[in-house]
What we know:
Layout: H1 7-13, H2 38-51, H3 54-60, H4 65-74, H5 76-102, E1 109-110, E2 121-122, H6 123-138, H7 153-176
Antiparallel strand pairs: 1-2
Helix pairs in contact: 2-3, 2-5, 4-5, 5-6
Amino acid sequence: MDEPYRASQWAEEHADNGGGSGAVAIIRPAGGWVRWNRRMTDDFFGHLAGSCNVAASARAIGVTPSQVHRRRRTNAAFAAAWAEALEAGYQLLETRLLGHVLNGGGAGTIAPDDPACVGPVDWDGGIKLLTLHRTQRAGTGRTPGRPPSVATREETDAAILKKLAALAAARARQETA
Length: 177
């Protein structure tokens, strides 16, 4: 009986060995079953903690982002580790930005510490990301989009009557034309 086919094995077999970046060239099809193992999980969370980038972390282990999101939805321990890895990633980002400032760097792009895990960081983007993370963590800040509202009975009646009047006017124009 054959051993189950692991995503990490698949990624190694399909790695770009033609002088490219060494990144996985092809990713397993979305919706495919993935047998998660300790190495895949550790590699994913290590990459996620270093980059805060779910898509890049998924590619690093040879799976699609939807497959890791599914794992997060269906496995409470995985979801808890996900939150810890993202928190570590935000701390790393904050440390890198602070180090950049203390070294006398201005606005612009910050060179990566580990190019395999983290790419260059845009100063403005990093600050915005940290600000967004802090407001979400604190439960403050504005949620995206318009706040939901419930119309009163009078407002709905007025909207319906306005629409009926517009339909009646359009019908009257058609009959006279």
